Protein 1
Amino acid sequence: MEYRDAGVRLEAAEEATRRIRAALRTALTPEVLAGVGAFAGALDADRLKSYAHPVLLASTDGVGTKTLLAVRAGRLRGLGHDLVNHGVDDLLAAGGWPLFFLDYLAADRLNPQAVAELVEGVAEAARAAGMPVLGGETAEMPGVYRRGAVDLAGTIVGVAERSELPDPSRVRPGDRILALPSSGPHTNGYSLIRRVIGDRDLFAPCPELGGASLADRLLAPHRSYLPEWRRLRAAELLPKVAAHITGGGVYGNLPRVLPPGLGAVLRRGSWSEPPVFAFLKNLGGIPDREMFAVFNMGLGMLLVYDPASAEQVLGLVDEAQAVGEVVEGQGVVVEGVDG
Amino acid sequence: MEYRDAGVRLEAAEEATRRIRAALRTALTPEVLAGVGAFAGALDADRLKSYAHPVLLASTDGVGTKTLLAVRAGRLRGLGHDLVNHGVDDLLAAGGWPLFFLDYLAADRLNPQAVAELVEGVAEAARAAGMPVLGGETAEMPGVYRRGAVDLAGTIVGVAERSELPDPSRVRPGDRILALPSSGPHTNGYSLIRRVIGDRDLFAPCPELGGASLADRLLAPHRSYLPEWRRLRAAELLPKVAAHITGGGVYGNLPRVLPPGLGAVLRRGSWSEPPVFAFLKNLGGIPDREMFAVFNMGLGMLLVYDPASAEQVLGLVDEAQAVGEVVEGQGVVVEGVDG
């Protein structure tokens, strides 16, 4: 829990440091060992011994250039949620359950309030995921970052029972594909988004967005699917495989969890697309195919089930939608986009 | 092991991707579960069950603005070693042993060869530490980074037996402080270094450096103390506490592992200072006190032992040097610097 290189100074810095400490404390769990971590965070891992065969899972990721939009809008707290929830969803798709999180935050100059707001967002999302922020680093690096720019990276570490890991070899033609909805672009496609929106007012109400502003719709935090996952686990209805739809859209992410010889058909219209995608498409004149190759298009997470289990899941999780099937072949076809 | 957002393209990119894959393969261990990690890397953690009480330790860190000097010199491989070895040493000081590593690499534009060279460095150092690179992310973010600039962050995760964690409460006045030598500035003080050296030729032989170049002396990789730690463990001579000397020098880092009411006296002249520090001091007119507050000054890692164990360690580890003692009081005094 070291923010010693933060370069946060004087009174503003002290206030920010207090906020950061208070925020990180809210995400503490009884497993965090205090007073050990002068050079590393420490987590009591005794519960791993209760696993028949524990597997550790880990993923590092950033939030891309969504940071630039958030800095422009002066809304940094959501980026903390983005960072954590992106990691949580990657972990869930890989079959893991959260153990702890670490963050890395770098900028040309660190504004103490901005750092505090970001870390508060990280801590809020980590607490919601029931995991502590075991470590963090903030680095001030003039000469590396552009003025006002910031970059964020996070690492999530989780655990799984080896026998419960997702297993692509269990996927069969005819399996149903269910979707959990996204809140918007999540953390992907922001270079394209920034090109398309140019210097438009981020705060003006947009009729095309039902009166919401671009800031509201484009900075909505990456959604965590942990609540749904917990309900699925309680009902013994975890998916055969799951794909977290990030950069590359459904074309890039769904094939990663399908075995050789199997592909997928998704039917456009079978799920609701957040209006911000049509807004971006129209404003930028972006072909549908490119939209689906860049954005999640409302499909935050795809889950694969045999037909009977799929019905049960649809009854259990209100927001889940049946969006397609596994088929012989390869790759992903989106009916209504790819013909 | 995803480098999917690398933006590495065409032939140069394919060659770089091959190099990256080959490099990461060399660091694989039998515990890495292949085919699981579509969205996260997976490590078989069954051996944790053999611990009486396992503790997971983790640390995230970057390499600061050493990146700018390395980019200028066109030597990126060493940065990979810096990133990994900094993490290894943080972990060792916290009492942990390496399990796995993840890296994050971002730049305005990614040069495929540069990425490959960096990741090769990461893989080489990870392999030397006996741990796999379980995940990685490369992000191309124009608008965030300055032209040609790159940032690197790494996360190390390790394990310890709870009863073997370092314990500041065991430190006593009169305990000896031993040092393991650094290779140079390691990864700290590079903003000051860049200011001091200005646009000097990085490759010209320097008489003050025994004919070595600035590039050779300033880009020497952060040294890993894992080989020494293994020998110490085999001899049951792990330190009571250890301080990895990073940003803040001995003043900032040694007190972090001393209990309240105890301080330390170090005697300048009792260890060898790499000549690059005197070179920087003279060139920049930097007071000694500032040198010791910014740089490790040759003290890469400090280890605290009772006097009898210290003697054994000095007999066991050739490079270890007795540099001071624990005393009543607080803070660190360097005799010959602080009077």
Protein 2
Amino acid sequence: MSKVAAFGEVMMRLEVPRYATLSQSNSLNYSFSGTGVNVVSALARYGHEGYLLSELPDNPLGDAAIAYLRKLGIETDYISRGGRYIGSYFLEHGFGARASRVTYTDRWGSSFNTAQFDDAVFERAAADIDAVHFCGITLAMNDEVRAAMKRLGRAAKKAGKTVIFDCNYRPSLWGEGSYELAKPHYEEMLEIADIVFMNERDAIHILGMTASEKDRAGQLQQLIPQVAQRYKLQAVAGTHRKINGDNTHSLIGYLYKEGQFHFSRQLTFAVYDRVGAGDAYASGIIHGELQDASPLHTVEFAAAAAMLAHTVAGDTPLATEGDVLTAMQGELRDVSR
Amino acid sequence: MSKVAAFGEVMMRLEVPRYATLSQSNSLNYSFSGTGVNVVSALARYGHEGYLLSELPDNPLGDAAIAYLRKLGIETDYISRGGRYIGSYFLEHGFGARASRVTYTDRWGSSFNTAQFDDAVFERAAADIDAVHFCGITLAMNDEVRAAMKRLGRAAKKAGKTVIFDCNYRPSLWGEGSYELAKPHYEEMLEIADIVFMNERDAIHILGMTASEKDRAGQLQQLIPQVAQRYKLQAVAGTHRKINGDNTHSLIGYLYKEGQFHFSRQLTFAVYDRVGAGDAYASGIIHGELQDASPLHTVEFAAAAAMLAHTVAGDTPLATEGDVLTAMQGELRDVSR
Amino acid sequence: MSKVAAFGEVMMRLEVPRYATLSQSNSLNYSFSGTGVNVVSALARYGHEGYLLSELPDNPLGDAAIAYLRKLGIETDYISRGGRYIGSYFLEHGFGARASRVTYTDRWGSSFNTAQFDDAVFERAAADIDAVHFCGITLAMNDEVRAAMKRLGRAAKKAGKTVIFDCNYRPSLWGEGSYELAKPHYEEMLEIADIVFMNERDAIHILGMTASEKDRAGQLQQLIPQVAQRYKLQAVAGTHRKINGDNTHSLIGYLYKEGQFHFSRQLTFAVYDRVGAGDAYASGIIHGELQDASPLHTVEFAAAAAMLAHTVAGDTPLATEGDVLTAMQGELRDVSR
Amino acid sequence: MSKVAAFGEVMMRLEVPRYATLSQSNSLNYSFSGTGVNVVSALARYGHEGYLLSELPDNPLGDAAIAYLRKLGIETDYISRGGRYIGSYFLEHGFGARASRVTYTDRWGSSFNTAQFDDAVFERAAADIDAVHFCGITLAMNDEVRAAMKRLGRAAKKAGKTVIFDCNYRPSLWGEGSYELAKPHYEEMLEIADIVFMNERDAIHILGMTASEKDRAGQLQQLIPQVAQRYKLQAVAGTHRKINGDNTHSLIGYLYKEGQFHFSRQLTFAVYDRVGAGDAYASGIIHGELQDASPLHTVEFAAAAAMLAHTVAGDTPLATEGDVLTAMQGELRDVSR
Amino acid sequence: MSKVAAFGEVMMRLEVPRYATLSQSNSLNYSFSGTGVNVVSALARYGHEGYLLSELPDNPLGDAAIAYLRKLGIETDYISRGGRYIGSYFLEHGFGARASRVTYTDRWGSSFNTAQFDDAVFERAAADIDAVHFCGITLAMNDEVRAAMKRLGRAAKKAGKTVIFDCNYRPSLWGEGSYELAKPHYEEMLEIADIVFMNERDAIHILGMTASEKDRAGQLQQLIPQVAQRYKLQAVAGTHRKINGDNTHSLIGYLYKEGQFHFSRQLTFAVYDRVGAGDAYASGIIHGELQDASPLHTVEFAAAAAMLAHTVAGDTPLATEGDVLTAMQGELRDVSR
Amino acid sequence: MSKVAAFGEVMMRLEVPRYATLSQSNSLNYSFSGTGVNVVSALARYGHEGYLLSELPDNPLGDAAIAYLRKLGIETDYISRGGRYIGSYFLEHGFGARASRVTYTDRWGSSFNTAQFDDAVFERAAADIDAVHFCGITLAMNDEVRAAMKRLGRAAKKAGKTVIFDCNYRPSLWGEGSYELAKPHYEEMLEIADIVFMNERDAIHILGMTASEKDRAGQLQQLIPQVAQRYKLQAVAGTHRKINGDNTHSLIGYLYKEGQFHFSRQLTFAVYDRVGAGDAYASGIIHGELQDASPLHTVEFAAAAAMLAHTVAGDTPLATEGDVLTAMQGELRDVSR
């Protein structure tokens, strides 16, 4: 198995218990997550060693986050302590016709986003691990964080390690006219990356590519090969999701590799907690790539992992490799005794 | 925006946490509601000022009710304190094939139902507000309450204000052979009213009208115009509801106005808490009428408001005007960040 | 061991979780209790058979009460189903300088207080059981209940069974100038009773006796022998309680029997839930009398039972005979493994 | 109505609150159940007297189990106290594509499985009750328990009482190559039994019968009559279940009696808690047989009882006879006020 | 009664349920508080009208805060909506030898601390209300907030209204060497104020005064008259608190007015939630001053109000005037029925 | 800092929420603990690396235990997975005069107590760590576990590492006449050990020593030096505890070293959760010995650590070194902001 590190912020998730609003309730459940947290935690459950490169405040909230990450199976040796705050968000679960709502508190001043990352640590990490994961959310933060992200990426690249980049473009983080702002940073990251998560919308909006096809499936087939070629990517992957009226979602995953598209079956499933399911998909793809699995197996595995992530509370996938393999077979089981 | 008052009882809702029965559980969640509470709270969220004309006991339960009404955005200036009890009901949530159950405690001796309402307050309210809402549940209580209800209705009518009456006929409250008993009181209220909520069943059972049509839709089209004409009503509105086998309901709203029927699309949606959804529909119609919106917009808005009310815990609608307008567009959204 | 029945109302206790108020909280814990419930449940834990003579509504609340009584170890064969409501009360726990508050809902219209009790059942019970327990709270309800109480008491007396009466005078139930109203009814019950729970205040206020002594202890010693003699009582018992500033209470129990007073040591103890502790004391005395224990052992047992009842949540004592005997020894134990 | 006893273990169910895993959560809900518990509790709700023949430890867990069984309406007179442990299992509720998981603790050393059952008690029970229920889970425990089970069964048979046997074969309890081990014991129980719950898979795997038909329905029709004839059974019953992708199950019940098959309609319904639903089906069949109802009514009643059991939390059915009869009519009801 | 406004931030309190730490728990209770919130809410319970001058974000957290403030009885007309965040803090309750811990999130960027307050609103408020309350915590925030605070104070002063200032110096907010920084701002506020809350430590540390007395009581008597004279204050008040080993605190209140000190009795009491008790004391003093009560009554009332505030969950006092008057009498009551 | 491993069982603690009994409640909180868990977790908070040598089942309960241990800061590399069960105990919290109760489930068949420990792992651990901790509870289990314990102890001794042994004699585990049974095993462990936790009662009862002194303090001073000399112990330590009537305990710690006794001050403190406090004391002593602190500092540190452990929920100490040092100063602090 491999050692995989993620560079990214740990956030506190403050969830109103099902299905009340913040005005109705007076209690919250909390946990700690983040794209990087979710990905390396999932990989730890598949048998890899998962590390996080991050910074947390040296206060009771930071302590609680560290304890939680350890509980998730993540190694915390590369997490420094400093700064003053932990970014957080409030989640109100929707139901049926009522959408879930996320309200962020100030993450700009968080420990991670104000950290002075130590290049010596980056060098050590680059030497020690097999793959590093980055995320477009981190890219949206500020110049210092962006710079650190690229430094670490280049160090890993130079050391011959696999660099993973999830585009994960969030319009609300970049602000108005943001695509212009984001484009050069995304291009830099794509230059560094080996495995990339994105779809045709990222290609069109962020990279400014144009498609002659009208529907999403066609655009995907048209644009992703161009991106893969331009940036010499080992693999590009992503999903198309559809939200149905009966509390179910439908999802189809793709993996483009060595000039070929591989698609999962379309899965339709009941949704309990949607947040973090994209990270489960990503971890399934990364696991397949790290294991050199066949692309078709990998994309089916990733789609099943994403499906299962919709059935657990919290942002972070909990399924083991065995759980995902069982779910891939598609037959629903009675109580497992 | 307008000032709208409702005359009605505030009840304590004591809910067994999902989906246990009273024999199974040992804890309850409580809130305070009532048709009037639900309607003016919803209108307050649409930007109006919502008042309640009611009486609550001067004890910790009355204090808790006042605090809760204020939290809902309701103005409590017209609520007097006195009497001894607050009416209450226990709600056991059903699931699928098992229906929800409501068990009432003694509401007949409640503060509201034993109150001596002050005509001077009624006159002041009639002068101050733009519309008053009444409900058939209140009409079922006792002679004193009925008399007060009519006095307030007439005072509002005389002051040129809009009188709203929701038929809301509850067989269990009127007892055996109750239609005979109820009919004259309903007729009196219809004489006073401008906006009325009812459907063909009320026309047939309470008013004793006969229909040649066999199905509900036909009877509605046949009888409602007669009612509207007989009582010179500005608007008559209501819904037809269907309970489906998969924890969803289907609902279609109607609004009859100026000689014409307007129907909403049929909406089918997952149900989280069914209680109070009729009041959400009523508040949507009232909002449209107070705003002079087009009848079609109003009936679609009201149906969407009713749909959203099925997705929140508690009797009282929580949606803002923006929430309802979004839901009217009919597209299901992913997590709103 | 004996068969003991209690005649009395079953009430629903709705408790705000510690130590919030009704305005602050949104949830309640519920249980079912009553003086009779508490006494026969405690006796059942001491090895007797405990029955309740009562009526409960034939609805989900009545079902839940029956289930709860069975869980407490009470036999429910003599409980009829009918009427419409169950009396209930809300309890807000105080803390330190803030006293607990009890708010009653309408118990006057409860199933028990509107029941038509069947004399045939009373005769059967009188023949079947060894002792019947009555309470002054029941005496305060209405003429029908009072009459039923006396009929059952006389039937038991006539059958040679032990009649127990707990004065339990509640000023708020009798209303203004209530002592005059209550006196004849209390006198009738004292004529019937064998074992009576009261103290000097009951003698002075209800029975209109006068004491030359100034302090409570002296008045007790002066008046109780007169009461015992006048009504030919087998035993009279009660407690003196002191509320201390540090969340502890001090309590001393007395038992007057065959012309002699017997006092327990003064016990001082931390209080978790004060409600129902008097009933624990009564059940300790009844147990001793039914077992023909020595008066000193009985009064110490009863005081220890009362002390333990302050340490458990809910109105109803939970201690077994062994628990009380251990507590009588007065030594505090570490965790019992 | 009848007196029905069940011989079987009481287990503690420790359930992670919906829908977390043991690693995620830090709290559990607990209750007490078991096939026998579920069956006689359901029968008690239909108006019969339900007894349990079992043993529980004389410690706080045993006390809690006794209290819980009494709350369920079960008579506990035939439960002895002794041994050291109560068997227990942990339940993690699945959601959609994620199956529920049950993890057992050591039940082999439980009070029930190490009890010395007293033949005098068996004789008394056999004389006193009308029917006794046994279960294949008990048969899997150990030689002493198996022997006691057969002794009690023969005593009941000899006393002319109805013997009920639910095959309930659990592969994990018998271990590898278990069918060989189980066969003679099942055959002995079938010799004793009058009413048997099983389906074609039991006939094939346990009894070693062969079927020429390929599908389950055909095999059922082929094999069950042979079993009924061979063991001279009064009635054989069971279900076929299908797990659907949308959190619903489909179920069809059968009852073979006097040479004829009777089938319920296929019911499809939303599932809240699947555990124990088979016991609800069994209790419906037993109720019909004890009441001499028509086979078609009985099988429809049993299927509706099973459906309702999927809608309540916990293993133990809660529906009354009225609830089941209403559900048999198949129309979904709005809130019952 | 009077109209009293407070100028200050509304904070979200996120409390770990008793008595766990953030690392141990996974749930929080939340409420909304702040010095101004606490003071005007308490005054509203004494019969005054309480207003808040503040700003809250226009998001679900702001909505929840508004609803909560309304529930507390506070008028929210002067609260503007804007900015991005609500300040918040996490509270871990200590027990006995383990102190409670408060961890702040970033309040510097909160809506209140980044608001552009409108002078027209200040003028309107100054004209409308009778008294305005300010707090030293607000003074510690930033130059804009400080400037707004002083503008509103001067507007109120000019309009002849009572200006109240609570020194409430928090070292952690001002940072290193902070007294120098704070002094001129405190002096400006003292120039404006009529009623001031402080004690000898504020005089020494913030104002740089020196005392020849060695003990706190002597220093208080020496310095407070100088402060009152220098700034021409109507009243100066405060408390001395002692933390005892047995989960109780001891508190003595003082009020200096017209050249004389008035002290409350020393109160010793069990503590349930210490946060916000100082604000209860302040509101008692303000109530007395607004009512022109005798200074001795006022200081005893304020101390009793502070004592009661230690007995309720949450920062915000809940006692009514009647509750405080009862507590002033000092006798502990049994359950109030 | 050092590497410390503990050899011992991980148990599941199932706690009834405060202060209900198992019969009253329907929910439990769970965590994972054990003497070894508590000690190495506490040491991890003081800055050491804490390892556990144990076995856990390869099922969801084992997974949950591993996750929990990681959350506590414990390294789980030396924990093997196998066997079938995890030992568990139920805790009902007492209050005041009512003692806490612990009910064990079957731990004899647990994974740890049936494990085949691998000598190669023991050798590796002995080489890798600085100190190993053993406990008398493990010694009471069975011959295989005892043998493994001694093998590991000797391996560590041979490797020159510090061997720690906590006598922790539990009468209920050894059974009747158990001292005879236990003595040789304790003697063997004392031969191996360097640091021992015991007091005069262990010397008298287990080792069969006799004391001429009558009181515990005198016996301690008489016997411990003999034990230390006989077994050549580096240090012997323990506590004397007194349970007071007001929910407080008093505790005095001792450390005997190099021929001298060192005693802590007597600490008296409010108790929230008593379980595990002895392990906190032990970890304080071990920390001092590993750090070569002065004996007086060590014993005061250990006593303060024990005191703090009584103030947190759960068996496992949570205090950091800083927390303990603060508590050693003995002054009670207000809210720490």
Protein 3
Amino acid sequence: MALAMSVAQSNAFLDREFPQIAGQVRVETSDEERLIARLIVGEAHLRPGGTISGPAMFALADVAIYLAILARIGEVALAVTTNASVDFMRKPEAGRDLIAECRLLKLGRVLAVGEVMIRSEGVEGIVARCSMTYSIPPKAP
Amino acid sequence: MALAMSVAQSNAFLDREFPQIAGQVRVETSDEERLIARLIVGEAHLRPGGTISGPAMFALADVAIYLAILARIGEVALAVTTNASVDFMRKPEAGRDLIAECRLLKLGRVLAVGEVMIRSEGVEGIVARCSMTYSIPPKAP
Amino acid sequence: MALAMSVAQSNAFLDREFPQIAGQVRVETSDEERLIARLIVGEAHLRPGGTISGPAMFALADVAIYLAILARIGEVALAVTTNASVDFMRKPEAGRDLIAECRLLKLGRVLAVGEVMIRSEGVEGIVARCSMTYSIPPKAP
Amino acid sequence: MALAMSVAQSNAFLDREFPQIAGQVRVETSDEERLIARLIVGEAHLRPGGTISGPAMFALADVAIYLAILARIGEVALAVTTNASVDFMRKPEAGRDLIAECRLLKLGRVLAVGEVMIRSEGVEGIVARCSMTYSIPPKAP
């Protein structure tokens, strides 16, 4: 199955539709198996003690799954998250970007489910696991 | 049980420890039953179509639960979220702040669990429900 | 809004459609606000140490939310759970039934979300919290 | 790292400690990477329409993660589930056993997190994904 959006198209979509985070998140890989996105960690993502905030990781997972869905079905601007669960498992390493690897577990007509594993770049243990369900709006007739 | 932090102390804590979001989130009520926090919705929270982003709601829930825990046990800067689940149920109303109402369901020695219901101010239906588990570090001896 | 199924109808539905659990779960209250169901705790629900198993609590929550949805929309035999999250917070008291109190947080055309708080009968603290999303099939034309 | 429990030991543990489900769940593989367990599907697991019930899948995931933890740390009878999230994604195939493949994402001193992918035997798509957190009691001194 050919992808509907390339890496370059995904990043252009981020620039255009999500200007608030476009400078912070970049898609690096997108193929039939997975989408990999990077969070370029900066001051805005940090919490006391130098750790990366939970909401910053949630935002990274959210955008990675959204883009993985769009890469399959094309730009459906109104797909919305209906459910998310996150396990925060390890403290991210200070001074390293986060790498999110997303797989779609289901891509149905109405619901899609994606899962993301987040790691600190170059470090083995999983920092956070997140799965989200997206509701896909019906196509206009 | 007397609270360890008042509303004013909770907001002062936000100003000091979470400067990135202190101007956006304010605690309005904190008593033995619940903590209520407001997200002052601005451009940074919006998504295409004028809706409020999921990560903005996640961040609001996260800080509300964290502050509800601290209001009981005092400033334990290193309590960390280990798990979160969110149900996004309704589109928030455009142009209205979000009001998060948090209750602690469990406050154990090691783990605390809080739940947040998020509504658009002045609107009845629940926009999002979120529960989170926090791991509380052992007290220094 | 009048309910589509009374307590007696809900229990008759359980007897007919869920014979495996009908003798273990009984609906006690069903009104516009909430549905309350009881798990009659028996040997089959216990784990080593005399505690009630997580799966038994999951099954109780599942049926309570399902019946709360049917009480509103009538018998839609094919509604299916798409997502569930559970927080297990306290050990249930030995020798006491479990009481599940369910509220519907959303009842949409396509998705419904319910939440259940489970307590040991006569005991205050919440044993488990569970939310589930059900997908509702389209009506036959 | 050598495992503390072999496949045979895991099944013997099931027979001894979980007699209610021992005849229904069998461990088939257990190594450093993963534990695979089978649900021998029978009448007790079915729902109207011939599908396998959500609680039956939850129970399978629960025992697979529990045994994967014990395979690493030895018999710690009092480890308890504190949190679970499940995505139910496809209807299981009628007349086929379920195969649960569990990986531990974290094995800490206090908390362990495992994830399970459930498939119908011989069928490719994932039926359900489940992650659970277990709280590990401190060792007696």
